[in-house]
Design a protein that fits this description.
136 residues; 4-stranded parallel sheet; two-stranded antiparallel sheet; 5 helices; 15% strand
Length: 136
């Protein structure tokens, strides 16, 4: 029942309302801890630099080397992400698209689409922590 409620809440922005795609956790940090462990190997994750200190520490504790990708005033730079995908071949990218911690940048729709297209082209999973996203 809880998974269905979450799926319904996220229907407009993610998952298409499929409760089978919802995983319930004991909070954001627990959810974030599950993802690198389940989906990545060392050297598999890239993130904007600077990035949330919690994800950096979490990756270190799991032996995952979080690689930095340059940002500008609009967030992660698509050209830098493209270069990182080509050279580092990451399995995942960690993004905080709304009110990124610590920069407070919110990615524009155009920037989100550009990063998603690059991730899709390189088969890179997007780990999104979007707790501050506007309500759908």
């Amino acid at each position: 029942m809880a998974r269905a409620a979450v799926a319904d809440w996220l229907n407009g922005v993610a998952g298409g309302g499929d409760a089978g795609r919802v995983v319930l956790t004991d909070g954001a940090q627990h959810g974030l801890a599950c993802v690198p462990r389940a989906l990545t190997q060392p050297d598999d994750v890239v993130s904007p630099i600077p990035s949330l200190s919690g994800i950096s520490a979490l990756c270190r504790s799991q032996g995952v080397d979080l690689r930095g990708v340059s940002i500008d005033r609009e967030g992660m730079r698509p050209d830098a992400f493209e270069a990182a995908c080509s050279t580092l071949r990451p399995r995942a990218v960690f993004l905080v698209p709304s009110l990124h911690n610590p920069t407070t940048v919110t990615l524009s729709e155009e920037r989100r689409r550009a990063l998603a297209a690059i991730a899709r082209r390189h088969n890179v999973l997007i780990i999104e922590d979007d707790v501050y996203r506007p309500a759908a």
